[in-house]
Write a structure and sequence with these properties.
Blueprint lengths: L8 H62 L4 H9 L7
């Protein structure tokens, strides 16, 4: 029967440190993957916000054009109206 050898306290502690270092490495890799995913989602969100803003602007312009048409105004007439000074309220 082979004699069992006990590890020294130093060997036990070094083994624990090695395991901790390996776990830190795994978690660091996971953090890097998640950080990259977050960056991609942030970019996607920024694109969606920009598209939403452009769609809202287009809807406003369409509503303005519809209002202009329904009241029989031309673009030149609107420009003329817009260039007049605003009346002041006393």
């Amino acid at each position: 029967m082979a004699a069992r050898t006990r590890r020294t306290k130093e060997e036990v502690l070094n083994s624990k440190l090695t395991k901790i270092d390996e776990e830190i490495k795994k978690l660091t890799e996971k953090i890097n993957v998640l950080s990259e995913q977050k960056k991609n989602i942030d970019k996607e969100l920024a694109i969606l916000k920009d598209q939403k803003s452009k769609a809202e602007r287009a809807a406003q312009l369409t509503a303005l054009a519809d209002l202009m048409d329904s009241n029989g105004y031309t673009i030149d007439e609107l420009k003329e109206l817009m260039s007049m000074p605003k009346p002041t309220v006393d």
